[in-house]
Amino acid sequence: MIKRKILLFLSLFCFVAGFGQEKIKQSINSNWQFYKGKLSLADLENSKTVIWEDVNLPHSWNKLDVMDDQWGYYRGEGWYKKTLFVNPDWKNKSVYLYFEGSSQTTEVFINGKKVGSHIGGYTAFSFPINEFLQFENPEKGNQIVVKVDNSYNENIPPLDADFTFYGGIYRDVYLIATNDVHFDMTNYASEGIFITTPEVSSTLSKFKLEGNIENNSKLSKEIIITTKLLDKNNIEVSTLSFSLNLNPNSKTAFSQLSKPIQNPKLWSPDEPYLYKLVAVISDKKTKEQLDLFSAPIGFRWFSFSGDKGFFLNGKPTKLIGANRHQDYKDLANALPDALAEKDMQLIKDMGGNFVRIAHYPQDPSVLEACDRIGLLAMVETPEVNRITETKAFEDNSIEMQREMIRQNFNHPSVIVWANMNEVLLRPRYDEKSAERQTYYKNVAALAQKLENATREEDPTRYTMLPNHGNFDLYNSVGLTKIPMIVGWNLYYGWYDGVFSGLETFLEKHHKLLPDKPLVITEFGADADRRMRADNPQKFDKTMDYAMLYHKHYLNAIENIDYVAGGTIWNLVEFNSEGRAESWPHMNNKGIISWDRIPKDAYYFYQARLLKKPVVSIGSKNWTNRSGVLSLENESVFYQDLEVFSNEKEVTLKINGQSLGSQKIKEGSTIFKVPFKNGNNFVEAFSTSNESVKDFASIHFTIYAPNLNSTKYPFENIRVNLGDQRQYTDELTQQNWLPEKAYTKGSWGYVGGEIYKMSGNPLIPYGTNKLIKGTENDPIYQTQREGIEAFKFDVPDGKYELTLYFAELISGNTREALAYNLTEKNQKEEKAFRVFDVLVNEQLFLENFGNNNYLEPEKAVDIKTTIFVKDGKGIQVDFKQKTGKTILNGIELKRIF
Ligand code: GCB
Ligand code: CA
């Protein structure tokens, strides 16, 4: 036995040791210099006028400007340079420069000569660079200069989209050196070898390799290609080899089909069993090993049906997961690989089995993670919202499609190649015009060409087009016919209609296109983690409304057989610079925040999808809360608390006291929890298994209804006028209470009404405009118009009072958000108002208004101190002169 082990070890060792010559791959991410702006090649030498900044890759120049108060972000040239030190031995090798991605056009120069260029921000590219390198003087190195440009270009997709087109070399860059004879390095930056499994079942499978071998030498070569399949434990399962003659300076095609592999272990999300394929080229005469290629192989087969959804390895499988955008708080799109991999793990840990890599191909580490941890994937190219009807746009689109497919071909996780997204959302030309009809034809023609290219590149996978919810339009233009699967991005109960519109839409698809498989490629609702509501309303951006949305959609996806699956829009919050709304520049539909903190919906999906038992307390990260008692003598404040679980029943304790057990229904239950003033400790556990548990620490500030309460003496009170939601300032963690009318002994407004912007029926409160000068936009975006007074019946003492204003009716209207199907462009009349503000009858702000303090869409805070005496409390009066009075927020702090 021992002997056998040693033998096995030895043979393994020899095999591994014998692998020898792999390509040498060396990252060159460190020590670059960067300049943002236009330069000529001549300027590069002139170190006096050009000031370079030290950077490392991955890098983007849009880390900060996408979040500031100015619309737009830098879209233009950025220059990178660095001295490359190349191993002198490489003189006799073939050397390549390999970019995983750079956005969006790239030109590369070495030692003053142009090496090549690339179009498109989301795919890899590489160049052979031997002829540009100098080896004579190794200490001098080689000067590499890279010009990157993320300007708008009408011939490069994406033209327009709900995400930010960051610029920079934002993925890894490598030098690669190979022997003269090697697997193809000049095929769309792919690995040059394409693996398929022409026969696959649980009893018998075969794999096939196809590709080219390059011989960059002046001599002809006789080689042997030996391919081995190793199992998880590196035990050889299959081996095949054959010889090939290579002409000098040539590319020679080859293909190898394996012998049958009996009873292969299958790959699936539940058991992502990967075999290792290793192919070695060796010189037939000298036996020298020249190159090595390795790839994972997963034996799996799959099919989509219009009726029954998706099948993996013959088993019906509901595809459930999320879309993933590639950016991250403060990093733009320049993330370390580990963060990209973590996103895939987050989908896995949610119980998902599926990811839509949208709207563009992403870092190679993403699909590597999918193979390894078991996630099925679809990937797409970014022809989003509209196209340009030019040959150049068409060529670039097709080129990207080919790059995407060839570069990602060898990932068992990939099952669908897609292209375009909601391509009829923002069509060109007038609706009724003849040009519009021609445009539609041109879109369909491009879709067909992309489809043909995809099927030609890879007949082993499905194709898909993701559309927005205008069924009749896509159907009449022909976009439901072209792809094998139709993806629908559906937002019923968000942008459009009510939740049940979802089922109505799906039924229509199924009735009219019974044979066409469908995936709900997007569904989601904004959830601004700073906002909560007792009575959530559509489009109020609260965490609470988003929960209702996700509950409805998951039920539909799980229960309707012909729905093959669904992907949440989005796994993560992402930057969309052109958006305003409650959190300007952000799309908050992520079930995980931009800095990767899960929201409630994430725990809900875990409870519904995971098999292992879980208990999670909802809104755990909402650690500072407050509430107003209805009667002063109450000693606790009752608030709903949702617990997510896949167990039968959970028990809840607060501050050591049990609140009893409740049954879980569809993934959750809601407890009425008595919070005391100060710190509270909440524990939840599965009633039948106490080790499955969660806890939360929540600080509660209880306000008595009367401000002179001795039981709950107040220190600080903040009221958001014109709003019924609760808001938490992320920086200070202070809560803002919803407004209420004044009652004696308490606080509140007198007179006026809640402002609501005109022409945007979706928005329940205030405006969606960006307010400059604050991170707390929701405080300023809501206001009370025509307010007469605000009163605080506080005891005598010294106080600090702050008034918050913003002019919301600015006369500036931005283009309606394209995704919001009910918002229309419209003009608004600029407001003009003048009013006096008095504090305890003393004139405080005279003729306050648009002539002085109130600039359009800018935050204005004014604070003052006041000594209250004779039990008079505080009264702020607003005396109208011209137009309506306003107040957006008010804060009162007790000093002593
Ligand atoms: C969509 C788009 C996606 C947007 C999303 C939204 O339909 O495909 O790019 O981000 O809606 O949140 O509006
Ligand atoms: Ca407000």
Write a structural description.
The chain folds into five domains: 23-183, Galactose-binding domain-like (Jelly Rolls); 188-297, Immunoglobulins (Immunoglobulin-like, Sandwich), CATH 2.60.40.10; 318-611, TIM Barrel (Alpha-Beta Barrel), CATH 3.20.20.80; 613-703, Immunoglobulin-like (Sandwich), CATH 2.60.40.10; 708-896, Jelly Rolls. The strands form twelve sheets. It has an eight-stranded parallel β-barrel with strand order 23-24-25-26-27-28-29-31, surrounded by five helices. The protein has a seven-stranded mixed β-sheet with strand order 30-43-44-42-55-49-52. Residues 1-19 have low confidence and may be disordered. It is globular, with a radius of gyration of 31 Å. With 896 residues, the chain is an alpha+beta fold. α2 (337-349) packs parallel to α3, α4 (391-407) packs parallel to α5 (434-457) and α8 (543-559) packs parallel to α9. The structure holds (2S,3S,4S,5R)-3,4,5-trihydroxy-6-oxo-oxane-2-carboxylic acid (GCB) and calcium ion. (2S,3S,4S,5R)-3,4,5-trihydroxy-6-oxo-oxane-2-carboxylic acid binds next to loops.
Write the SSE topology:
Elements: H1 2-19, E1 24-27, E2 32-36, E3 53-55, E4 77-84, E5 94-99, E6 105-110, E7 113-119, E8 125-128, E9 142-149, E10 173-178, E11 181-183, E12 193-200, E13 204-215, E14 221-230, E15 236-246, E16 250-257, E17 261-262, E18 275-283, E19 289-297, E20 302-305, E21 309-312, E22 315-316, E23 319-324, H2 337-349, E24 354-357, H3 364-373, E25 376-384, H4 391-407, E26 414-421, H5 434-457, E27 462-468, H6 471-477, E28 485-489, H7 501-512, E29 518-522, E30 531-532, H8 543-559, E31 563-568, E32 574-575, E33 586-587, H9 600-609, E34 615-617, E35 624-628, E36 637-645, E37 649-654, E38 657-663, E39 668-675, E40 678-686, E41 689-703, E42 716-720, E43 726-728, E44 735-738, E45 747-750, E46 753-754, H10 777-781, E47 784-785, E48 789-792, E49 797-805, E50 834-839, E51 842-849, E52 860-868, E53 874-882, E54 886-887, E55 889-894
Helix pairs in contact: 2-3, 4-5, 8-9
The structure holds (2S,3S,4S,5R)-3,4,5-trihydroxy-6-oxo-oxane-2-carboxylic acid (GCB) and calcium ion.
(2S,3S,4S,5R)-3,4,5-trihydroxy-6-oxo-oxane-2-carboxylic acid binds at residues 161-162, 421-422, 468, 489, 522, 569, 587, 589, 819.
